[in-house]
Amino acid sequence: MSDHSPTTPPDGPRNGPPVSGREFDVLFDEVRTWGRWADAGRGAWNRVTAGHVRTAVSLVRSGTVVALGRPWDTVPGPDNAKPALHFMSDLGDVEAPEPSAHKDFIGADYHGKAVSHLDAPAHIAYRGRLYGGGAARELVGAGGARFGDVAALGPLVTRGVLLDLPAVLGTEWLEPGRAVHAADVLAAEEALGVTVGEGDAVLLRVGRFRRRRELGAWDPGEACAGFHVGAVPLLAGRGVALLGSDGDSDVRPSPVEGVHSPVHALALAAMGVPLLDNLDLEALSAACAEAGRYAFLLVVAPLNIPGGTGSPVGPVAVL
Amino acid sequence: MSDHSPTTPPDGPRNGPPVSGREFDVLFDEVRTWGRWADAGRGAWNRVTAGHVRTAVSLVRSGTVVALGRPWDTVPGPDNAKPALHFMSDLGDVEAPEPSAHKDFIGADYHGKAVSHLDAPAHIAYRGRLYGGGAARELVGAGGARFGDVAALGPLVTRGVLLDLPAVLGTEWLEPGRAVHAADVLAAEEALGVTVGEGDAVLLRVGRFRRRRELGAWDPGEACAGFHVGAVPLLAGRGVALLGSDGDSDVRPSPVEGVHSPVHALALAAMGVPLLDNLDLEALSAACAEAGRYAFLLVVAPLNIPGGTGSPVGPVAVL
Amino acid sequence: MSDHSPTTPPDGPRNGPPVSGREFDVLFDEVRTWGRWADAGRGAWNRVTAGHVRTAVSLVRSGTVVALGRPWDTVPGPDNAKPALHFMSDLGDVEAPEPSAHKDFIGADYHGKAVSHLDAPAHIAYRGRLYGGGAARELVGAGGARFGDVAALGPLVTRGVLLDLPAVLGTEWLEPGRAVHAADVLAAEEALGVTVGEGDAVLLRVGRFRRRRELGAWDPGEACAGFHVGAVPLLAGRGVALLGSDGDSDVRPSPVEGVHSPVHALALAAMGVPLLDNLDLEALSAACAEAGRYAFLLVVAPLNIPGGTGSPVGPVAVL
Amino acid sequence: MSDHSPTTPPDGPRNGPPVSGREFDVLFDEVRTWGRWADAGRGAWNRVTAGHVRTAVSLVRSGTVVALGRPWDTVPGPDNAKPALHFMSDLGDVEAPEPSAHKDFIGADYHGKAVSHLDAPAHIAYRGRLYGGGAARELVGAGGARFGDVAALGPLVTRGVLLDLPAVLGTEWLEPGRAVHAADVLAAEEALGVTVGEGDAVLLRVGRFRRRRELGAWDPGEACAGFHVGAVPLLAGRGVALLGSDGDSDVRPSPVEGVHSPVHALALAAMGVPLLDNLDLEALSAACAEAGRYAFLLVVAPLNIPGGTGSPVGPVAVL
């Protein structure tokens, strides 16, 4: 059995260095922005002013539109433990006949490794606290989240930056378990001619779906390339508004003792930075390479779900 | 009981003139664009070239972002026969503890009168034929649509035009049943200083949600303001790519003998023009009025559902 | 507007006498059986021994089988705020062709007024305590109930007794809001020639679905005939194992100050007596009248849902 | 890797003899009972008269109640491609406070290998024909089945017979792929002291869940013990009303050329005999062995789903 086996991901050889729980807590406090914005529930999206919107729009050159959402995946697999639902509710034979209507039901427990989705701040609590410091137990119940929900976020229009790590490193993909460090971000900026700035959406490509297409599916909960927590202060210092990835931004296995998704905790709970998980960045990678530009207009348009901890999305990049 | 009763909509006094089935068929053939595009499944979205995208982007002035999606509505009512589902699948107590994760399931049989959604061409067949002429019975099955599905459409970035009829007419809303005619469209263009053109997305505001807020919900399947079929040739001649509304674009009751949703039939099945139903256009109306401009960048980012006849959406306007 | 209006139920003229919160708490303690059984999660079903099963079986005379489950109701209405889901997932066109298979998805948020269902003890907590005294907050979470769930209950085979109140009173139904008192139970026993005993399932018919068929649907949350809490000590003294009804056993509006479903609280939380709600008892009423017997074999076969607070069911009576 | 590997089921060494498509069609005609009953939609359940019910009830000796339904399985796996859904819709924090209510949503696309369920006649068509000869395409649509649905079946109370093959053969289970022949049925009758008769429900135990517990899950669609079609004429001759199994009654791989589920086709489409799939028969096996009796009262109480092609069930045996 080769070490590229789709069902047996390689051990993450470089998910480290390990980080102790205590070190992580120091890091959490370092990047924390609680209390910074009046409209706390929107978190770091407060960074995206009308001026940022105008700047983002001004990046459009060719008018090329690239969709970043994966196909709605109804088939279970190692990376799809909660298959999405899609049923036809009318095939033109249920309601009045002319015109005939075809209708469908969709459903998804969308957090996980398969559905392209946005994480709102309410998705994650660290030590029982949501972004801003409120107690999760009081703010999130069976009726949904009363703080930091996706309806409070609304849509995002901003500058997107693709950190195309495989392109920078000259590989097809990053091996599962490969941590992306601050030095990698800086090297990518240099190589790709782009600088992450205030209000930007940073999209980290690790080549997951390229690898999946060639080697088959594996469980990214076991091993996936993504940011090491050590890279987060750099991103925090730049004032990012959103992190997205074809993984889920966290390198796995987690290098942090006792914390299974440390980048989630830092981004969502400390910094109020929403996440985009499970994007398909293959077409965007090709489009950026062709255009020779890695910054673009990005539009994220979640469903308006009051109390929702996120939303399935189909983000759009315009080059 | 007043004639503004929320549960007893007034009879549509001006949904006419009545149109016979034969006249409708002539109209259908008149606006039909079958065979026009190589990528037939995308229908009229083929009209939106990269040049249109650039033009749309160039409309942005203030950077004001307006969301057009209604709240995900889980409460049944006269306009919500199939309430959307929203359940919490994890309240931080199901999976590993740190960070704790809040997760939710969403589901919807989204066609209807409550969920803001996109209709893909596969949603509607007239006389058994989908857009392009294929037999619906062969192209749509329990596994979904094999032609004209929402995954084939992808996202849309184009110029949006708001036909704000109540603003033009100086009313709070159009009464349910009020038909919007070609003359209304022309008058709106004149009054609002905008001209619908090739590749545009036309958003028709009838003030449904303003009326609903003030008078309560009613069944828009019984009575709703919307286009009379007689207005469609004008829109077809202009080369529209998308029709959207806070209703569903069709005036109801239908003025066409034996055809319950004639604008749907013309737009989707004859012209390949997708529809946006149940948008909340109140904030956009205010934003356009304030800006004094009724054309803007519009982004529609449906979920990437292979075989789907549409998608719940949260479209975004940028002024 | 007549006082039989389907949408405006009459005020419950006789839902009283009113009961104070303090009186209710005394009643709760009076009927409480916490600590009585080793297998506490099965509550009063511990009363149904193998001997009771044999007795129940011995009641069968004619071999007439009567189904008590309402049709799965996918249509919203005043008594169906959360319509059940039913979608075809395969119409013989999704999987391999011979034989062709038709498949369907069902779904329901089944507690409410429309689906025939069993309430397990975990469904209800009073003052934060489940049956047995455990804290609901610790025992029930997003993953389900860890005590008193329907999987712990399993099926029930016992003697069923139909208290057919309209038959006793010579009416078609009890008016919504009519309370059923201990005296009514005793009178029914006398008139119907049956005595409720240890381990029995008591089915209270109020004629809800007869009334619904003739006058239309109304919201039984607003007004429904059912037991007054004053009748519960009698039932408790008899050692009932299960209460069922074509309503939900509670008279509504509740006569108890500050407690919306007091019979639910007494039965489930104090006595560990599961409930069957929304049964269709019309056919059983006719069958019992024809047989001249109101006791029979009853089988309740819930779905085996670990953590479930109940289950949709189709109980079966055999006369 | 041992030949008991849970993920690599052994090839079915004895799923044969192979049967040609032509031979199968002859068999189909041989066992076909189309036109036999006035209430055709109930199929072979017409065999179960009130007299059969009385006989079944008279079998009860000890009063032991055994549940046959598997736990509702929300975890995907090789035998669970469509995990069932279970979400809490209220944890006592959504509706009015006292008593507090815990509520849940369940959902399932229940046909498959994981949910214990009943197949109604409408589930299967052979050569486009449902039981009775009606065209599936006309009788089953997006709104469900208009013939042979589970609501037409209603509940079943009859004599159950456990054909406990592993007990007969002195093994823990039948290996996946092992066909059960007429000779096996006769040998089991002899060994277990029971004779299958008119109106009986035959439950075939192959020990699937014993094997699964010890060796792990595998895909029973690839290999599972079950009846060879050659055993069906014997069962047909005996007048069985129902077939059930801890598999799905069909040996897999199918020995019939071009027919993936031939016992399903014969039972449902030719004979109108409903099926119970994925039962957990381990406890029943132990109870029958202890009692020394393999015939008992069986109650199958499906949900009353109009148009449903079956139902999740929790059947009950009473010894």
UniProtKB/TrEMBL annotation, chains A, B, C, D:
One of its GO terms (biological process) is L-tryptophan catabolic process to kynurenine. GO terms for molecular function: arylformamidase activity. Residues 1-22 are annotated as: Disordered. It holds the Pfam family Cyclase. Residues 7-16 have a biased composition (Pro residues). Transmembrane segments: none annotated. This is Cyclase family protein. InterPro entries: KFase/CYL, KFase_sf.
